[in-house]
## 1
Amino acid sequence: MSEGRDYASIDKNDPPDCVAAHASGIRFVYLRGAFVENGRPCADPTPARVRDAWAAAGDVVGGYVILSYDPSGPSPEDQIQKFIDTWGPRRSGELPPALDAETGSKDHSSATDAQRKEWLERAYDAMSAYYGFVTTYTSLDQWNTNFGGGPSRVGNGGGWIKIPYPWKEHNPPHPESCPPTPGTLPAPWEDPSSPGAWITQYQGDAVHSTGFSSTVDCDRWILYVDDGRADVRTPWVDGQLAKLGYASVEELQTARGLVADKVVGPATFSVLTTV
């Protein structure tokens, strides 16, 4: 399992020391590209400052957008367009972009669960139209409580799942609090033919993470299907390998210059999701 971070230029975070973070074991990072503030979509300056630095340090990089579900605010399409304008095209070797499908105290407007789900799906459609493959960040509690539960096309991508755990705010990262499997997933993500690669957040608002000046969210890359063999396969992985013309994960990794560990980690997943 690979360690990662998701980062935004908030909480007085200075630009991270990407080399130090990578040396500490970080292997992937998601950077916030856009969000809504004061009723308008805004670009996060983080990508322009550190996107290339993370890649140069050896990490796999992806971007995410935090959606606002206020019917009186910017449309989901406008919010996604701000992300596209900020992040630009997905570069070779990068992770697919992600939608942050959660709501906080600022997002509890007059929108109903059904309206939030509709806006999320519209955002997913707009993002997919530009990038092709899109992942989603949510949790079972968020999905059932704020989006009405049930199936949705936003489950077609890989998952970025927040696992419920005792939050230890303003403490160092606690990787032991991250379970080795995703646990119970929202219904749309439970199909074994899905991508089968997941990111779980195991520590929110963590401090003293090497390379970061202030708070950061800690993530772990895990595999939805792992039967104990090194060569982790799912129907989705097999299908993507076939499209690319490879018989195995190891063969793809060798051909693309990746570490041939036979595991669909962040770098391998980035290749599989470009088909």
## 2
Amino acid sequence: MSIGSAILAPLADELTGRVTVPGDAAYDGARAVWNGDVDRRPVAVVRCADADDVAATIRFVRGAGLDLTVRGGGHNFGGAAVADGAVMVHLGEMNTVQVDPVRKTARCGGGATWAQLDAATQQHGLATPGGTISHRGSVD
């Protein structure tokens, strides 16, 4: 399925982030995931800057009757973050990490990597015993 940029214009106007479509210079990089064998082509990649962008994209996708995928880090071996004909919500720019050293907790954006989480927690003498691949999360 192909939808034109004009159909996406109202969504793009509402976003702080940006919409990338086939033919844009950034499209191939935006749709790429860790597993290079996965070569799927969404109708658009929405690089969300914040939760409002995510909500606006979901509303748009529902209204347009399109499929939706979410790319947190793009590290799923099967490539679930990208589907042909879908709109991909790309969380790579939502990568902040907030650490509460008193409670020993962290709040991470959907695009944060293990390296970012490790760096933020280490500043407070804390460790994150979950991931072993530091680029897991946003890989671009």
## 3
Amino acid sequence: MNNRTQQRTGSTLQSLRKLIPDRSSVSFREALLVAEIQASRFLICQCLDTVPVPDGTILSQPRIRVELTPTLPSFGLSFWNGKSWVIQLSTRQSHARRRFTLFHEYKHIVDHGAADRLYRGDARHTPGVQAELAADFFAGCALVPRRLLKRAWGRGLQDPKLLAAHFDVSVQAIEVRLDQTGLRDVRPRCVPSSGSWRLGPDTQSRGAA
């Protein structure tokens, strides 16, 4: 890894954490917006403008170690071992699911120290559930960026299975992103003319795999 790449990856985590509002509490709607902005910043920091987003963008970052284990009781977990951040991924999940879990756990690392401010809980979700939904949302936005999904859809790539292969994610993850970006409301195989297409904001998060 050259010095320029090392500096870029070394500053990514800090850059994403700086996007978290410095206030005592944040609404869940705003927390989801922060997650999407962080995902966009992540891709910018890694100089990525094509898909699929490589796993190496996380694996190559300093003080982050990824371990694969067949005995993990969940799909993934992350923790600080005193020297580095460790992301453990279960080998019982598919390659596509494992990629999603990797980015999901990375979001938990980004949120470290700020989760109490970002996720306060509400009538629908506990703070813990909100944190999981935001991590799912971040992973979806990073692996299936809105702009690149829109580009693929506009070029006629509209079958969920083909889109999943294009972005190297699961069909379920693609279907969630289609819902979140409003593309399911676009008539299949209809390529919109320039300037006539509008997408709704990402204001809801669903679990994806």
## 4
Amino acid sequence: MTTCILGVDPGVSGAIAFYWPEAQHRVIAEDAPTAFGLIDAVTLADRIRQLKPDLAIIESVGAMPGQGVSSTFKFGRAVGTVDGILSTLVIPRRFVTPTVWKRHWRLDKDKEKSRALAIQLFPSCANHFARKKDHNRAEAALIARYGAEVLCK
């Protein structure tokens, strides 16, 4: 049986990545689908159903210092949407803080380093991370691979 792990970099500007540990260089990374400035729950649920992940690893983040109330609420709503979809689809989920998964990869807050590492780890899928703004896709892919290497052992 092929295992698929879903990595989630949450938020409206976040991303999702589907990773197959049996094929270490295979990953599908995409921007989170949105509609009217919110996560498009129907499209996201359809995509998750299509690729059938066995486990989801969601980055566990909180409000950022200096972030406005409206932005914080919008972010929380996005995280809740993802969590609700995964619960409804009965997909087990684990949460990991940025500090923990980034320490595993020896990364810091520099998003460009995350993108460079994703290109290195997934060379045949580097097109998913080609643009500078694809750092969220890269982080979703690294979260998924972290889950496979650490949480699924």
